[in-house]
Input
Amino acid sequence: MKTYAEIMEQLKKPFPPGTVKVSGDGKRGHIPVQVYMSRLEDVAESQWHWRIIGEPVFNFEKNIVIVKGEITLVDAIRQGLGLAKITNVDPALIKNALMTAESEAFRDACDKFKMGWIDLAPYRDWSKNPGIDVSNQFLIDENPIIENFDPNIHSVMPVSNRNCIKCKNPLTQNEELLLSMNGIKHAYCKEHVPKQLIKKQL
Output
């Protein structure tokens, strides 16, 4: 059996590139629930448990449902709260809202185990607070490490099949990384990316 410290060390590791789903405006990011669940299964195996606490709370005046749950990991417990909108009283839609609220509660509990903190740091104001230890800063570092990239040999390393929507030139890995860091979905090369969208530089 693994110790809590051993499990936590693995849970906090960054997820593969592309795991974070970014909002259309590039300001918010989230990690799908299935990714968290897969990490817990792979790392903690039978040493974790998820349960819903009490009954869901419906507020039909505000059209929301609230679900509370908790994850037990070895001897540690973290609770999470999830909220979802109810568009109408159709049973199928209420069921979907309940599932969404439960997923949000699960995600919230995972967050309290510091899962995904490294990956979500670019979208959270607290990430640069000196009082918070995000042990691996590669996603927000001024000089991110690029796998298989040797600056003494390559100036850039093309890795994607996307072309710039302006000049049609293939994007390099550096350009893809720049777009990813800034939550930009459209394919722009460094020359044509709108300057107002760039918040973080390589």
